[in-house]
Amino acid sequence: MTRLAIIVVVLLLGPTLRVSAFAQPHCPQPSPADIRAALLSVYYFSEATPQTLPQAWRPINLPRAARILRCDGSPGNTSRRRRAAAKLVGGIIATQGSSPADSLHRAMLAGAVQDLGVPPDLFIQLQSVPHDTRERAERATQRFFDREKMDDFSKGCCSCLLQCTAGSDGEVSTVYFQSWVGRDLSSMKPLLDPQQWDDKECSKGFFTETSHAGDTCSAASETDPTTNDPMAGTSWKGVLLENFEYKYKTSTKDGTTKLKNFLDIDIKESDPRYLLEYGLCKPLGGTMEDLNGNASPLGLKEDCGYSSATRVSAAVPNETNLTGVKRLEFDVNGLWEINEFGLKMMADTITYEVLCCGSGSETPAEDCGCAEKYCGNGGLPPGAEPALCGHYHP
Which of 101, 133, 141, 384 is 20 to 30 A off residue 127, Cα-Cα? Predict the structure, then answer.
């Protein structure tokens, strides 16, 4: 019996009672912190059998994560459920072996899929679909949602991840991705401007503040007195103050990680391209709480990258390609273990949520023909190095 066949039997005949079709449960709207923690949990558990993580980043359990995503009714909720289900199915396929631990892990992933509200029909149909790799399984899952016209697992807009790799050398973590979206470049430029990273709807509240802080790092101020801030989406060069706050949740407590930094910013806006380059010029400190509520110092040694958005052609204006790179290194050992999952989630979130934010009359999601890619493990391709790395020297 195949792995999927076993999962089907578990789902259909197992003792746990679950509904076979999506129904919004009677539960309150989860907070942005709940939603981010739930997604990170899905990405973590679907990648491999869990390994030891730092105390402060231990993920919440999958049943709780699935319920959070199922209760979510905020903008982008259908896309998040879609991605979560696809990741979990991919994890079932990628978990090899016949040991009790492997079987238990596959059953846990399958249970979370159904806890999301996905009917068992998905697993039945996947048995006849080529799905020998994680990427094929994820793609087949998303095609199932489209074919069955499951609105609760639909895309937010017509966008696709075309290429993605993420990895770490034990210190520095890196992600490289290419995306395509069916909307015009002009409507996306303000979304990509770092002054808008604190937009609560489009950026999901990761930043409590992002603002222009001056023209040079040496003269930058946390309370910039100038009133001539650059217009979002236009060319500008200067320094950005970013206040990053990640409210994480574990199975036993909530906690907060805070970081404040000055970033060098260089934006070149033209037609048909928008290029944002950034690099850490001065960390301003931060804290990280452990599971006991104790806060310890946390800072960055590197945070650099770029986003390059280009209109595909003048003949087809409602198509834009985006290439993104981010490099990240903390001054505390061990956090690279979670960065790989977080950076993969970031690439997907930008592709399927941020690029869709505020979309209107562009290409409808149901008419989107591109095939989503899985964000695999790897480094940067030749020529993709960010230009503003290495600006900060402690």
Answer: 101
Report pLDDT for 120.
81
Residue 159 neighbours by CB under 8 Å, 6+ apart: 179, 180, 181, 182, 351, 352, 355, 356, 368
Express each pLDDT in 32-52 by its tens digit.
Answer: 888 888 998 899 899 866 555
Helix, strand, coil distribution of the chain in percent, nearest 5: 35, 25, 40
pLDDT band for position 55 (cuts 50, 70, 90): low
DSSP 8-class letter at 203: S
The answer to whether 165 and 175 are in contact (CB under 8 A) is yes
Domains, the chain, ranges and CATH? 3-153 (no CATH), 159-377 (3.30.530.20)
pLDDT given at position 78: 93
225: DSSP letter: -
Element (H, E) at 366: none
